[in-house]
Amino acid sequence: MTGGVYEKNGKYYAVINLKDENGKRKKKWIPTGLDVKNNKRKAEAFLQTKIREYESQIFLSSESTTAFVEQFAPTTEGISALQMPINSILPIDDKIDILLSDMVLEWLSEVKNGNNIELNTYQFYESLCKNHIIPFFEAKKYSISEITTEILQEFIDSKQKNGNQKNKQPLSPRSLKHLKVILNQVFKKAIKDRIITYNPCTFVKLPKQQKSIPNFYNEEQLITLFDRIRTEELYPLIYVTVMYGLRRSEVLGLKWDSVNFANKTVTIKHTVIRFSEVIEKDGTKTESSYRTYPLPPEIETIFLKQKEREKRGIKKYGELYEENDYIFKWDYGKPYAPDFITRKFSRLLKNNDLPIIRFHDLRHSCASLLLSKGFTLKDIQEWLGHSDIEITANIYTHLDQERKKNIMSSITI
Fold it and tell me: Nearest-CA neighbor of 341 among 326, 358, 321?
């Protein structure tokens, strides 16, 4: 059930969209008795209360409710006993209304203790709640029952404009989407706890996501990159990343049990990610991300050199060496942190006068290289470990179009 607050003769009216017995839409105007000046929030809260009352009346008058009553209270006395005040059956009580910011914290606690969410996902949600949702609504002291779709839309719109606290730039479409997901779950909890009867997040609109074109290096630029950083400590890691098109989490997750020197294969089966802390996982992003590659001589040599480096580190640092099975790590054994790789890669590009791209764009560069060699989007999907070819097509169609133009120019007579 929906409705809105309207001004008339200097007063606020709650207008609810109803249907009559024939299913025809009609509007119910209810005076709030509130002056327009400085009373909008109270009027909106009044509207939500009336919507709850009407929804409860509809529930009680429905055929399914009548059948329930007749089944469990077949006597006249029993039916009369069940014909109690609405709030006795649906105890929506303003006394248990709480601030939205407090409800968000309750929801976070339930999610954390529920053991049905990945730790990195929880950390991402926690960051969105504590950096965006809670500060916004805590400052305004909104209670759950006061929240309307319009208020939530205002929140999303504000985050779209300058939600990034560091640079006042718009939040990413991914972050905006997850803000709505979180709020939707919070209001579902409020409904389950019988604080409210409808979810104001249902009709909140997200901005239309603009299709982004990834940055990448072409083959010539990749050769230049490798030539200029060949003596750098991260060269082996960067080379392996490009050749296999790995995610940062996947290349950092490579362990010695990932490499089968006898069968000449490399299997992607571990990941290392970071949000508020580093998380090691014996698993990949999706089932299709678990994949096995051939082990060419160039990469086999890199791994063997890493093994020799590991042995030297153990000998040099002795008991201080941090023993683990990761391939890419510091001399003293500690695995590289994800954010270190990102920062170091950026500095390498700047120091060598190379075009600035993200570390993740090396994965796109691999796709570009494969397309330039004549491989299809299906080949790239399998090589990169995308779960659906649509993902591959959405990201790399523009690259495929360039290849088709080259084909066309080659055959035009």
Answer: 358
